[in-house]
């Protein structure tokens, strides 16, 4: 009983309860049919949101106003870079992944450079940067129709006993991220900066370096996500990352991370990503039109945050 | 004994003078960036600086300015509205369908949507919710409603709206008159009335305001209702210009409006906003967005990048000036 109460006190538990409820509602509707397949599909799609969500989580935890709006453009460019470097060749997969990572890291570092050198609010800095990245992508990826190498495409779709391998790897990555957040100096510094940047600075935290690392990390994860998406959806695309702007912010906040910064958790990102993907599946199963689906998604996000809300205000 | 204070007094006043100059410079910066963009356009294509040229170039500036003002009200209360773009799209769809076919129903829907905005303000305050998330959710909801109303691009603007937006006053192009009017009305309301001070104060120091006996619930509701009102005006103006609607027509306005407020000298926290600056910021963005880039012969691929670069340059200039302020 006590452990149950402890569990219910976790900020991330609500996103998992939400995901479970949505799943139950769907299989109740289909009469138990397709419940397993639904989880497989949800896991494979949630992975992409989780990867960028974790990057966004570290950025948002830095405190009010910190948010990475360049992720969609970053994902788009990295997907093109990865496909171009791999060039449909199985032996170049690792090189292509590294190129996408490097591309994302460069974008993250450039973001922080703008924030630091020009003292622009991160929202505007990453927004302006995303405009420039988008142009580079349009110009670089013009007419790009390169398919991913067959080995890479099958890797991103590979399943063991109905569980996508990519999801297993992402769970391992999330555990690493959770340890980094809660048990390593880097993560504790991020939390400290989010709680009070001045106090963190006075306590000897190298604020500039930690913020630089965080934006670079977010950029790197965006780049990796772009490469994986291009593998999963069989090709790069300028618009491939568009839906991850809102999704990355939504999973962070629905997962119980404070928008005010200084309070974060990794499991919630998973719960919220599963919740959003399952919600979409449920509404598709119910056969509602695109308009109703969007309307319900919006109302449910507002409903969830209202039910779970009551945290100390942000910005 | 007497010399020392006199000296510091003197130093203090020169210090104050320097600060005042820097602050003035900072206040003028939005206007300066607009002038800069105008000069660039005049240099690249002198013929554009004419009655007809301005009417054409600033065509879309009115809805952008109105959406920017809407965002400014929300930012004044230390919140952020990520739904204003899809809300403008929703209003556009209502304007092109209901408002034309059944004006009374259309007007009621639009009034109702302003009430929804006011309720969101109340919800955000009462439950202490992050406005980013609530408005993020609402951005899906408005878009869903827009698609339900108008599944395919189409509809038609009401005739009175069309003739209003096509109004051609003598000498000064309509968009400039409209921008001046919007800036003047909002400036008076927010900067010159006593309740306007209270509204901005709710972003500056909410705790102090609440101890002084003002209702923070009311300020939040009023700010959000005003954002809704100007969002409605923006959507109607947009449809008056484009004549027909599309559910995705306003999507770009969310980020454009935030950028406009910041370009205009507003800040994300502290209730520091400027209506005149916001309108100027919106005009700068509208001009920099396409006319300037077309005249500079920038290839279409790089137009978005040039937009980003202009934002960065203006903000960098602001930093140079505000460093002097310190």
UniProtKB/TrEMBL annotation, chain A:
| Key words of the record | Cell membrane, Membrane, Transmembrane, Transmembrane helix
* InterPro entries, per the entry: ABC_transp_permease
Q: Mind telling me which residue stretches traverse the membrane in this protein?
A: 12-33, 39-62, 92-115, 122-140, 160-181, 212-232, 244-262, 269-288, 294-314
- Compartments in which it is found: Cell membrane
Q: How does it sit in the membrane?
A: Multi-pass membrane protein
Q: Please give the name of this protein.
A: Monosaccharide ABC transporter membrane protein, CUT2 family
Q: Domain of life here?
A: Bacteria
| Keyword match Zinc-finger | no
Native organism = Mesorhizobium escarrei
Under Pfam families, the record lists: BPD_transp_2 (PF02653)
**Predominant subcellular localization, coarse grouping:** membrane
From TrEMBL, chain B:
Q: Which Pfam families match?
A: BPD_transp_2
- Specify the protein's topology with respect to the membrane: Multi-pass membrane protein
Task: Tell me the compartments it is located in.
Answer: Cell membrane
What sections of the protein cross the membrane?
Answer: 24-43, 49-70, 82-99, 105-126, 133-151, 171-190, 221-241, 253-269, 276-298, 304-321
The alphabetical list of record keywords is: Cell inner membrane, Cell membrane, Membrane, Transmembrane, Transmembrane helix, Transport
Q: Which top-level group of life is the source organism from?
A: Bacteria
- Principal localization? membrane
Q: What is this protein called?
A: ABC transporter permease
**Originating organism:** Mesorhizobium escarrei
């Amino acid at each position: 009983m006590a452990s149950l109460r402890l569990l219910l006190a976790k900020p991330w538990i609500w996103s998992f309860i939400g995901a479970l409820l949505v799943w139950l509602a769907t299989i109740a509707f289909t009469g138990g049919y397709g419940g397993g397949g639904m989880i497989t599909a949800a896991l494979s799609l949630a992975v992409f949101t989780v990867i960028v969500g974790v990057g966004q989580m570290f950025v948002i935890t830095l405190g009010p106003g910190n948010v990475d709006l360049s992720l969609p453009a970053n994902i788009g460019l990295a997907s093109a870079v990865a496909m171009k470097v791999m060039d449909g060749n199985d032996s170049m997969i690792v090189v292509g992944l590294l190129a996408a990572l490097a591309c994302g890291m460069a974008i993250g570092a450039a973001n922080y450079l703008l924030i630091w050198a020009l003292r622009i609010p991160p929202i505007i800095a990453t927004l302006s940067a995303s405009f420039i990245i988008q142009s580079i992508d349009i110009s670089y990826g013009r007419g790009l129709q390169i398919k991913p190498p067959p080995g890479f495409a099958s890797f991103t779709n590979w399943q063991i006993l109905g569980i996508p391998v990519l999801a297993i790897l992402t769970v391992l990555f999330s555990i690493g991220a959770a340890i980094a957040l809660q048990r390593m100096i880097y993560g504790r510094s991020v939390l400290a900066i989010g709680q009070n940047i001045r106090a963190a600075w006075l306590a000897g935290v190298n604020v500039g370096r930690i913020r630089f690392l965080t934006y670079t990390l977010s950029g790197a994860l965006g780049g990796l996500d772009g490469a994986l998406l291009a593998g999963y959806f069989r090709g790069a695309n300028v618009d491939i990352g568009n839906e991850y702007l809102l999704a990355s912010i939504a999973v962070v906040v629905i997962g119980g991370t404070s928008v005010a910064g200084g309070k974060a958790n990794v499991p919630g990102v998973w719960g919220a990503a599963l919740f959003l993907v399952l919600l979409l599946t449920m509404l598709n199963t119910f056969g509602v039109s695109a308009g109703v689906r969007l309307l319900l998604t919006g109302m449910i996000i507002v409903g969830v945050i209202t039910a779970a809300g009551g945290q100390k205000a942000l910005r | 004994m007497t010399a020392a204070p006199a000296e510091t007094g003197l130093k203090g006043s020169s210090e104050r003078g320097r600060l005042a100059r820097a602050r003035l410079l900072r206040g003028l910066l939005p206007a300066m960036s607009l002038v800069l963009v105008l000069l660039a356009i005049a240099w690249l294509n002198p013929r554009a600086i004419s009655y007809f040229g301005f009417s054409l170039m600033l065509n879309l500036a009115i809805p952008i300015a109105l959406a920017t003002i809407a965002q400014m009200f929300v930012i004044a209360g230390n919140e952020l509205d990520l739904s204003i773009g899809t809300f403008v799209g929703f209003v556009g769809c209502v304007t092109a369908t209901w408002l034309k076919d059944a004006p009374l129903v259309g007007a009621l829907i639009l009034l109702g949507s302003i009430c929804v905005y006011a309720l969101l303000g109340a919800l955000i305050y009462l439950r202490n919710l992050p406005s980013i998330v609530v408005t993020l959710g609402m951005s899906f909801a408005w878009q869903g409603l827009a698609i339900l109303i108008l599944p395919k691009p189409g509809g038609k603007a009401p005739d009175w709206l069309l003739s209003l937006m096509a109004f051609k006053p003598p000498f000064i192009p309509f968009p400039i008159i409209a921008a001046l009017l919007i800036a003047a009305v909002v400036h008076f309301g927010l900067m010159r009335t006593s309740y306007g001070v209270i509204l901005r104060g709710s972003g500056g120091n909410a705790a102090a305001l609440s101890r002084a006996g003002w209702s923070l619930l009311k300020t939040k509701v009023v700010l959000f209702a005003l954002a809704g009102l100007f969002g409605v005006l923006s959507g109607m103006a947009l449809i008056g210009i484009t004549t027909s609607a599309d559910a995705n027509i306003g999507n770009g306005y969310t980020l454009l409006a935030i950028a406009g407020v910041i370009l205009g000298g507003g800040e994300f926290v502290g209730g520091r906003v400027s209506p005149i600056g916001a309108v100027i910021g919106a005009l700068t963005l509208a001009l920099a967005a396409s006319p300037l880039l077309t005249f500079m012969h920038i290839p279409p691929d790089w137009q978005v990048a040039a937009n980003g670069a202009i934002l960065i340059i203006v903000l960098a200039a602001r930093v140079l000036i505000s460093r002097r302020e310190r």
